[in-house]
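Lab notebook, bench 4. Still working through the backlog of constructs that have no structural model yet. Next entry is a single chain of 294 residues. Request: give me the structure tokens for it.
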Amino acid sequence: MKIRKILTLCVVGVLPALTGCFSHVRYVPKTRVADVIMSASLDDMARQLVTRYDSMRTFNASVEIAATTGGGLQGKEIQYTSFAGYILMCKPEFLRVLLLVPVVRTQALDMVSDGKNFKLLIPPRKRAIVGSNTVTTQSKNGLENLRPDVFFDSMFVQGPENDQIISMTTDIRVIESGKKKKDLIEEPAYSMQILAKPEGQTVRTLRVIHINSIDLLPYQQDIYNDKGQVVTKAHYSNYRYYGNTPYPSNIVIERPRDHYSLTVNITKLTLNQKLDDDQFELKIPENIPVETLK
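Model written out:
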């Protein structure tokens, strides 16, 4: 019995000494669970997406847009000066993006689309471009791969159509918290997969919409091509309410395969204001040659 007590005392005395030599303390951000968590069925979430999208018939926003080209695949990034401008949308697919030169406020870029084709005018370079909304020949210059569909698909999260398949999985979203962003909050999140099954083909993913559990609003959307590759990642934050319709005031659009990203900050937004047809018309001056992109 005495021997057993002696061994016990030795172990108790030696272990702290050993752990002091062979361990160290590393401070990590504190993590806590979100205070409020909401839940809804898959059908309810899908219905909310459809209702929210249908509530926006027209869209008139003052914006600040910054672009970055390059990335890890190229080994370098180029960050461009932020431009003020406007984005107009009128359903079903009319879109206009107008950017202004800093300080002097003259036109830097003007792009319009009818949903199938687009026109692009760059007055400072005396350059005009027309083409299809779909990129068929990729340019090494990332921004030359920019098409109106990138804005339309990223800025307006559409719900599933009647002939599409939907499913949902749960996940954990970790976000920064506090003024110094030293703490982390873990909150449940939902991922809604929207899939299509064309006749005679296998089921493929069209989009994945990530929805947070705090207010059941999308915080990310992944858009896939017909090869199953992610072509667009759009991130949404800082929602504000316009009437009964919430809309993010900050949108980051990543196009990894095209080597560019856009950061869109909404400074002013008016929904469902009447927009005239001529606001989606672009006349190219006769002295500017027109290029056709494929």
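Notes after review: The longest strand covers residues 58-71. The radius of gyration is 25 Å. Flag for follow-up if needed.
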